Amino acid sequence: MDFRTVIDFPRQPGYLDHRQHILLLGSCFVENIGGWLQQRKFDVDINPFGTLYNPESIARNWERIATGEPLTGDNLFFQNGLWHSYDHHSRFSQSDKTAMLSVINDRIQKAHDRLQETGRIIITWGSAYVYRLKATGEVVANCHKQPAAQFDRSLLSVGAIVSRWREIIRTIESHMPRCRLLFTVSPIRHLSDGAHGNQISKATLLLAIEQLQQEFGICDYFPSYEIMLDDLRDYRFYDTDMAHPSATAVNYISEILAEAYLTPESQTIASQWYKLHSALCHRPLNPDSGSYKNFLQNTLGKIIDFQQTYPYINVSAEIADLKTRINSL
User: Would you call 262 exposed, middle or buried from its count of C-beta atoms within 10 A (0-12, 13-18, 19+)?
Assistant: First the structure.
């Protein structure tokens, strides 16, 4: 007897590879996936604008990455002692306007400069609900805790999402012929929309992705939403807020992603590097001990061996860091 629903998922070994540059855009779940990949030495760029939830805001920010167009002071506003951008997550907010613009624009330029190397774009949509600033009518990615009276809330239609993304995908097909888009719908429950509203929102996103897949051969879908709701299907797989997946759930979904899309070589690399990553993160009780210095030297040797085995993976930063730490003892 089988007491769980096993979700069928597409298997395309080599779809994700350590030789690719991968851009990830969207909700905090895409940051979970991106963090998992990063810890296994994939070349990733995670959310250059910070966490984004709705397809319109992700589209706007993708277009800025594609053009490399910088923000100006006119794109910022001052609230509660900080400068903010409606297109950015609050982690970019700062008290110094010039410093904030510098950080934001450096981040945009970095993402823009690597577009021609980008082989995969992973996009996670979280909600089809959007907030429009009444003063301008523009959709904002983040309200930055301003009064609700300043915004109008509405649900994007399937047609509006598809129309918006159709032009983006056509541009990617024309200018980035080696690139494919992997869409997911975030399994995070947006309970502020209400239980019914959350389901309507997720259904809207799923229908839009389905239509884009039918229209464009470069669009793929990974069922993280279905795995969470139907395979795991238990509150023990949620965090304490009962809305976000727990660390166990994130790892489970990420491992299914790896099983679906990695070659055996990439799976080996991911496993080997995660052990090295854990060693690099290790902090001893006595950092001045001889045994800790031996541990660092041993780790350095393993990373140098890793570099020789996989010369296309950049580990120069880790080698430099280890040498600095060893020399300081």
Answer: buried
What is the reported pTM? 0.95
How far, in Å, CA of 32 to CA of 29, rounded? 5
Residues 6+ apart with CB under 8 A from 159: none
What does the pLDDT average to over 210-230? 96
* Cα angle value 84/89/95 (rounded, 5°): 35
Residue with tokens 């393993």: 302
Amino acid identity of 54? Answer: N
The pLDDT of residue 285: 84
How far is the first Cα of the chain from the last one, in angstroms, to the nearest whole number?
58
- Whole-angstrom distance, CA of residue 237 vs CA of residue 251: 11
Whole-number Å distance between alpha carbons of 141 and 130: 8
Per-residue model confidence as pLDDT tens digits over 169-206: 999 999 999 999 999 999 999 988 899 999 999 999 99
Single-letter amino acid, residue 68: G
CA–CA dist 85, 75 (Å, integer): 6
Paired sense of beta strands 151-155 and 129-133, if any: antiparallel
Task: Mark residue 145 as left, alpha or beta (left: phi above 0; alpha: psi -120 to 50; beta: remaining).
Answer: left
SS3 readout for the chain? CCCCCCCCCCCCCCCCCCCCEEEEEECHHHHHHHHHHHCCCCEEEECCCCCCCCHHHHHHHHHHHHHCCCCCHHHEEEECCEEEECCCCHHHCECCHHHHHHHHHHHHHHHHHCHHHEEEEEEEECCCEEEEECCCCCEECCCCCCCHHHEEEEECCHHHHHHHHHHHHHHHHHHCCCCEEEEEECCCCCHHHCHHHHHHHHHHHHHHHHHHHHHCCCEEECCHHHHHHHHHCCHHHECCCCCCECHHHHHHHHHHHHHHHCCHHHHHHHHHHHHHHHHHHCCCCCCCCHHHHHHHHHHHHHHHHHHHHCCCCCCHHHHHHHHHHHHCC
